[in-house]
């Protein structure tokens, strides 16, 4: 791999006169290479990932997916054993164009996307384009509201993904019939309209033109969607029934279950970020991996469609009192790490405060968690909450809820036992290489 990269660099050096742009290009390539790596899919080491069945015949096995946040492309972590990586995130606008957040110009983001796709395919990783996200779901309802708009939206998404070379599309609508970040347009018909969008010819037959033959994962033209733990909301404001969700369940290859963000700065007390179980949960916070999968199945999705989301980050909250009690862990907001939300105005024009987020790897580099992730350090003590099946750290001043190596692996094992399609990490900047590899082996 190093020889190939050096050759490309040599060729480009002969043709690129502007050294500054060459430096930017090379930096981007190295960062993306750190994610995709030369051993992204190793069928000899990792059972459960896509692997060749010989001479053009492929069999699907378990997915190990990762969301690659383009807005944090400068801090990507070392390569891991992913089968699919999702370029996150293109935000659809009402004029049928896409933006990539406030910190990236469209030309720069598209350049990064093309390089990302090229390197992914060279390493037999399926590159998908993720559309929407927390800040980019404001216009989904409007774009899906009529047959004409749905057709235009579907056509635009497929053309854009094909233009950049992606082999699949992930729709991250947060959330149908909900305000989401606070200023989303929404309608009681959103869930049904979402299904009508997904069943269009443009997103079923036409996207097959995006297929490519990977030596490891076979022909891929996936259509996935990220859904929350509470499931889809129906026209009456309550959880949708299977008739309302049928169009979604029948036309998606996979559902990426966002099984995290149960507790955080939005909750009145401290609690688990991503509970496997909700055994001791207070009223109003009974979401968990277990309940989320149950809701998905009740709404008509097959367990074999569900890919379980694993957070690769932590939430740190400053405690009001050093004494932790089951239902009264009060807290104050405080700054997080390198990828944390910064104070300022969000896309809705509302004040945004610190999110208190840290990458899991930052817990180690900051000296709060040992490298083997078994012990708290520098005043922090590691605890394990049997009620939720997750760890947390405390030092009498701060409470840190997070996902570590062991809980990621235990959830992957749980996913295997429940016959789920696999796991995904949100996002690729946070987990250690050994955590992703171990999760892959557990499937």
State the fourth-level CATH superfamily: Glycosidases
Helix content: 25-40%
- Name the assembly state: single chain
| Cα-atom radius of gyration | 21 Å
Number of beta-strand segments: 21
Low-pLDDT regions: 1-25, 38-60
CATH topology: TIM Barrel
Number of domains: 1
Termini separation (Å)? 28 Å
Q: Taking strands numbered 1, 2, ... along the chain, how are they ordered across the largest sheet?
A: 3-4-6-7-10-11-12-21
Give the overall shape, derived from the CA principal axes. globular
Q: Give the helix tally.
A: 12
DSSP strand content = 15-25%
Quote the average pLDDT. 85
How would you sum up the major sheet?
8 strands, parallel, barrel
Structure classification: alpha/beta
List the helices and strands and how they pair.
Elements: H1 2-15, H2 19-36, E1 51-52, E2 58-59, E3 63-69, E4 84-92, E5 98-99, H3 106-122, E6 126-132, H4 140-143, H5 147-164, E7 168-172, H6 190-198, H7 201-204, E8 213-214, E9 218-219, E10 222-228, H8 242-251, E11 254-258, H9 289-298, E12 306-311, E13 313-319, E14 331-332, E15 344-345, E16 351-352, E17 357-359, H10 360-365, E18 381-385, E19 390-394, E20 398-402, H11 405-417, E21 422-426, H12 433-442
Parallel strand pairs: 3-4, 3-21, 4-6, 6-7, 7-10, 10-11, 11-12, 12-21
Antiparallel strand pairs: 1-2, 4-5, 8-9, 13-14, 13-17, 13-20, 15-16, 18-19, 19-20
Helix pairs in contact: 2-3, 5-6, 6-8, 11-12
Transmembrane segments: 20-41
Keywords: Membrane, Transmembrane, Transmembrane helix
Protein name: GH18 domain-containing protein
């Amino acid at each position: 791999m190093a020889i190939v990269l050096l050759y490309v660099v040599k060729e480009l050096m002969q043709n690129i006169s502007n050294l500054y742009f060459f430096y930017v290009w090379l930096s981007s390539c190295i960062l993306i290479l750190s994610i995709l790596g030369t051993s992204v899919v190793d069928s000899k080491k990792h059972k459960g990932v896509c692997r060749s069945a010989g001479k053009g015949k492929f069999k699907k096995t378990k997915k190990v997916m990762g969301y690659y946040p383009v807005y944090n492309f400068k801090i990507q972590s070392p390569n891991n054993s992913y089968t699919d990586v999702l370029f996150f995130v293109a935000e659809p606008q009402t004029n049928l164009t896409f933006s990539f957040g406030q910190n990236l110009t469209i030309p720069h983001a598209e350049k990064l996307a093309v390089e990302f796709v090229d390197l992914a395919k060279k390493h037999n990783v399926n590159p998908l384009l993720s559309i929407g996200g927390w800040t980019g779901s404001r216009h989904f309802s409007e774009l899906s509201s009529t047959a004409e708009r749905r057709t235009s939206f579907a056509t635009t998404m497929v053309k854009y993904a094909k233009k950049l070379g992606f082999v699949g599309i992930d729709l991250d609508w947060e959330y149908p019939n909900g305000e989401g970040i606070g200023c989303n347009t929404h309608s009681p018909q959103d869930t049904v309209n979402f299904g009508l969008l997904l069943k269009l010819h443009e997103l079923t037959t036409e996207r097959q033109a995006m297929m490519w033959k990977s030596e490891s994962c076979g022909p891929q033209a996936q259509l996935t969607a990220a859904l929350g733990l509470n499931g889809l909301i129906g026209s009456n404001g309550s959880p949708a029934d299977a008739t309302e969700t049928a169009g979604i369940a029948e036309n998606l290859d996979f559902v990426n279950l966002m099984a995290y963000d149960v507790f955080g700065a939005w909750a009145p007390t401290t609690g688990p970020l991503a509970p496997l179980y909700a055994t001791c949960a207070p009223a109003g916070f009974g979401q968990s991996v277990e309940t989320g999968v149950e809701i998905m199945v009740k709404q008509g999705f097959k367990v074999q469609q569900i890919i379980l989301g694993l957070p690769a980050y932590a939430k740190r909250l400053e405690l009001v009192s050093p004494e932790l009690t089951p239902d009264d862990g009060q807290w104050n907001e405080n700054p997080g790490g390198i990828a944390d939300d910064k104070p300022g105005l969000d896309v809705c024009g509302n004040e945004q405060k610190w999110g208190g987020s840290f990458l899991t790897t930052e817990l180690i580099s900051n000296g709060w968690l040992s490298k083997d992730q078994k012990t708290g350090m520098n005043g922090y003590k590691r605890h394990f909450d049997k009620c939720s099946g997750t760890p947390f750290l405390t030092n009498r001043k701060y409470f840190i809820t997070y996902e570590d190596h062991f809980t990621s692996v235990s959830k992957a094992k749980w996913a295997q036992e429940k016959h789920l399609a696999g796991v995904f990490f949100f996002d690729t900047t946070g987990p250690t290489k050994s955590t992703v590899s171990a999760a892959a082996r557990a499937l």
